[in-house]
Amino acid sequence: DALEEEFGAGRSPYRLTVNSSSRESAVGVAANAAVTRYELSVSVRYSLERSGQVIVTDSAREILYFPAPSNPYGLIAARRTAEEQAAAALARRVSRAVALALREEAGEPGS
Hints:
It contains two helices and three strands, in the order H-E-E-E-H. The protein is of the alpha+beta class and about 110 residues long.
């Protein structure tokens, strides 16, 4: 969804393929062994093609930390917010990389 917001949906001669993965781990633990903070690491590998020709392929990673409220619903909301923030940040990075690759492909000055 974040990439669709960055690029818009519609027909294009280009094909952007994105594979993502995420990992969550406890990084803060209280004296009573309760988790107080999590690290969320989201990685993407992307490739832009036109007519089967690869224009750019690369990867990016975003790491966020979020609190672990004792309320389970609070934890779900904190996790979802972190996931949305990571997706938005990665979408911006991918869209900038794609824009640069398209400018270079077109041979525009400043690339």
